[in-house]
Amino acid sequence: MCAESHQYRPTQSREVLRKFGAEPPKPPISKRPLPRIVCIGQRRGERREIRLDRPALYERVWSEPMTTVAATWDMSGRGLAKPCRRLKIPVPPRGYWAKLQAGKKPRRPRLPAVTGGEAQEVIVWVPE
Questions:
Q1: What are the backbone dihedrals phi and psi of residue 54, each rounded to the nearest 5 degrees, phi first?
Q2: Which terminus of the chain is more exposed, N or C, with fewer CB under 10 A?
Q3: Is 54 helix (H, G, I), strand (E, B) or coil?
Q4: Per residue in 41-89, pLDDT tens?
Q5: What span, in angstroms and rounded, lies between the C-alpha atoms of 36 and 52?
Q6: What's the Cα-to-Cα distance from 7 to each of 10, 15, 19, 106, 126, rounded to whole Å?
């Protein structure tokens, strides 16, 4: 056995920056304001406009699978998940619908509250 055992630890990036006199980056702003209006889909060609508020989109996403909702609006499930993330709308996790079909009652998170002027309207462009 060694008399001196030295245990290595991973380099901490802030320590390295401090060593060279560099300013560490500021943490990202977690409380970014939500956009007032979010458009989903493309406005090109002959498209019909559907206007929803944030709670209505939340109910729509949790009432049926996202791929089904997205298919009715002529987009992918991932294309619908991105605006939901931008609006801080929780979406069903993987396996949610299978658990529901098996008779289990999976947890459904509440819609987070927003301040007055944020995320008032969602516009979905649907082909006619």
A1: -60, -45
A2: N
A3: helix
A4: 777 777 788 888 888 989 999 999 999 998 888 888 888 888 888 888 8
A5: 12
A6: 10, 18, 21, 45, 60
- What is the edge-to-edge ordering of all strands in the sheet holding 121-127? 37-40, 121-127, 47-52
Q: Are 38 and 52 contacting, i.e. CB atoms less than 8 angstroms apart?
A: no
pLDDT band at 1 (very low <50, low <70, confident <90, very high): very low
Taking the C-alpha atoms of 31, 32, 33 and 34 in order, what is their torsion angle to the nearest 10 degrees?
A: -110
| Structural contact between residues 126 and 47, judged by C-beta atoms closer than 8 angstroms | yes
**Domain locations along the chain:** 34-101+119-128
How far is 78 from 29, CA to CA, in rounded Å? 24
